[in-house]
Design brief:
By secondary structure, the protein is an alpha/beta fold. The chain has 15 helices and 13 strands.
């Protein structure tokens, strides 16, 4: 009876005069997804399943594609977003955006006018979007194919050393604004810049003006189910590698197409998945359900998952643990060295939400306390707001319904008050 009742409710919300549109893929109520082709509460969102360049162009901006080859042979594709207004991005302050776990550059462009990339461009910045190795936009290599196990044999340290360095140097060379770049990272994007900046502090200071870290991950304080997964992570990862599996979601397009197919029939199940990977959902819009799953998840190397698990289990911000014998070969000691956040002297701004599944204010404070920066700050988003319906989770930093007022306005203040380009 319940399914029948739900269907009747949905039908009651439709208008007999509403035209049938089989391309509808966004609904303002979850129940309407079951009858999305005839519901007046549903419509077609062209950004569902679109690529980053397609979304940028459709929203009225220009886009440049740049290839970046790392020192270990990976060929990354990064994008530059061009303003709608006449003229070039020359001498505008560069902002480099680095995506998080199971994401790519789509994260900054897929929620239409709420997207961070467009907000920054409209605010007068020269915006660049990174894509880490292994994502759909960065799957080329000088000698390896993605079907080669060796292609996926990298960890967080590797990506921090090679991908971040190569991408930031590319932006500096193209813009001529070395030392003025603002780095904005989310989740894994924050882990990577912390690693890179701690390992190469002088090069980082040469390139960057400052860092804005959204959902910053160096230390964990996860929800119980995440804690369980992280606890078994090293053992599970070792078993997967023994079976010849080096990557999660090697073919993300197939998975996304499957989720787009089943979510209209089981919208609450799919919303529950969003909850599991993000946290509580007061800021998630039903309209973004299929849109989210058309851009999530992307591929994730097993070694990266292992390293995050090792960091959690050791309660340290450390390099990859190869085991005692190889640690001695790689590091000259039997345990992996820790990253020294005290070497980071750049201004750093740490923004987090209380509904995050990986971190809490306590773990963010650990990062803050260890940073060597004279100019640093922690902000709980939304600022000075304790309403439960407004609180951010791990992924609200790129899709929240109130992201413009709760996040972008705060970021704009930080950037204009503290991170102006050199010479200004």
């Amino acid at each position: 009876m319940l399914p029948v009742l739900m269907l009747l409710i949905c039908l009651a919300q439709t208008s007999t005069s509403s035209p049938v549109n089989l391309e509808n893929n966004a609904c303002s109520h979850l129940l309407d997804y079951r009858v999305k082709s005839i519901s007046r509460n549903c419509y077609h969102n062209p950004d569902v399943g679109a690529t980053t360049p397609e979304m940028i162009k459709r929203n009225g901006y220009g886009v440049e594609s740049h290839d970046v080859t790392t020192d270990d042979g990976y060929i990354l594709q990064i994008y530059r977003v061009i303003s709608k207004q006449a003229g070039s991005n020359e001498k505008k302050q560069p902002v480099y955006l680095e995506h998080g776990i199971l994401l790519d550059s789509d994260a900054w462009t897929f929620v239409g006018e709420r997207s961070l990339a467009y907000s920054l461009v409209d605010d007068g910045y020269d915006v660049w979007l990174g894509n880490q190795r292994g994502t759909p936009y960065s799957r080329r290599h000088e000698t390896l194919k993605t079907t080669d196990l060796e292609y996926w044999d990298y960890n967080l340290d590797t990506v921090a050393v090679y991908d971040i360095s190569a991408s930031l140097n590319k932006v500096a060379n193209e813009t001529g604004m070395e030392g003025s770049i603002i780095y904005i990272g989310h989740s894994r994007g924050t882990t990577l810049i912390f690693m890179y900046a701690a390992e190469y502090p002088e090069e980082t200071e040469r390139l960057l003006k400052g860092i804005i870290a959204l959902s910053p991950i160096a230390f964990f304080n996860p929800k119980p189910y995440i804690e369980f997964l992280l606890t078994i992570g090293p053992s599970l990862g070792k078993s997967l590698k023994a079976l010849g599996i080096r990557v999660f979601f090697q073919y993300p397009k197939t998975l996304k197409q499957f989720l787009e197919l089943i979510c209209p029939s089981f919208p609450y199940f799919c919303e529950f998945i969003v909850f599991l990977v993000s946290g509580k959902l007061p800021q998630f819009m039903p309209e973004d359900l299929l849109n989210f799953f058309s851009h999530f998840p992307t591929s994730f190397a097993v070694n990266q998952a292992i390293q995050y698990s090792q960091m959690n289990n050791a309660d340290k911000f450390q390099k990859f643990d190869y085991g005692r014998t190889k640690n001695l070969e790689e590091y000259g000691q039997d345990t992996p060295p820790e990253y020294d956040l005290g070497k980071i002297k750049l201004p750093v701004y740490l923004l987090y939400g209380v509904n995050d599944i990986f971190i809490t204010g306590k773990s963010v404070k650990r990062v803050y306390d260890q940073l060597g920066s004279e100019k640093k700050q922690i902000l709980k988003i939304p600022v000075d707001n304790d309403k439960k319906e407004d609180q951010f989770n791990h992924n609200d930093f790129f899709y929240a319904k109130n992201i413009t007022t709760f996040l972008y306005e705060e970021m704009s203040k930080i950037m204009k008050d503290n991170l102006q380009p050199n010479g200004q």
